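Protocol step 6 of 9: fold each sequence in the batch and record its structure tokens directly after the sequence line. For illustration, a two-sequence batch is reproduced in full.

Sequence one:
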Amino acid sequence: MAILTGALVAPGPSLTWKVKDTWGVHPKPIDVRLRVNMVNPPGEVIVADGDPPQNKPGVPRRLTYLLQSHQGDSTTFVNVIEPYSGERVIKNIERTDRGDTVTLRITLASGRVDYITSSNSLQPIPSAGSAKARFAAVTEENGKRQTKLLVE
């Protein structure tokens, strides 16, 4: 693995890759991007090139990897991976921590709001009407709850 960069970064950095359709999913080439939004400030971000196993057709010769490290007794890495073509879909990401529970409020360009909650223990989920879960994904559109996924 060849290290391309290693640097201390400010809170909320992101990296965007231009994606090549190596499996021929689209009939003609389109501009596809993959953005990693680092919601919490990592101590160090390393972008490195590595050679994946060549055990299947279409596997690229080389891949770029994102490695994050942080020093301390307690670390929670939170990244939001955003695939898009043309304009970005995510307008804003807000993180709220409550004990061992992390909630993301993700606002999309369309105005839709997604709430993603993850916890190490069963917790009430305010965006889901205070139902209890370890993981929850709730979508609101036009001020109304549209979908809800709870995992105990």
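Sequence two, same batch, same settings:
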Amino acid sequence: MIDWLQIGLEFLGVFVGVIMAFWLDRRGEVSRERKEAVKLLKLIKEELEKNTGLLDQFRNELNVPPGQIYLPYYRLQLSTWEAISGKMDLIKNDELLVSISQAYFNFDMFTRTLERYLDLAYHLVKERSPAAELREQIHRHRLSMIKQVEEVKNGQKDGILPFTKKVISRIEDEIKHLDC
């Protein structure tokens, strides 16, 4: 005679075992994704901190007397962003992802603006513009670049530098959250 109770128990055991195997596999996959996301966020944070240091140094060097012809050049780093942009789906916090994207967009626009200003200064010197006119234009460009780095709106600093510092802080919070 067929022992239905034993067959039922064996079936239930196999069923529960398969479900547990899937659950454990998924849990391991989620853990690996979290670890990978933490590594990505640490790389991004490191690059943002380097760029923040460069922007801070740039801003300090721009604060020269108006009569001087000086426009420093710093190349902000974008290599981590370019290298990992295909893995950004590991970052599940959409708001943070948008902020990181905005920070790198700001870096790109800043670099492009700086290159345009340097090109303009080169052409002014090449065309032998009068010294006073040249100094005035370069001074206006310096002020514009300072504004871009630390722009103040409604009593709050809202330029590239303060925004990037906020993003770094949010990345640190996300790393803490994921490392739990």
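Proceed to step 7 once all outputs are recorded. Observation for sequence two: The chain has one domain: 33-179.
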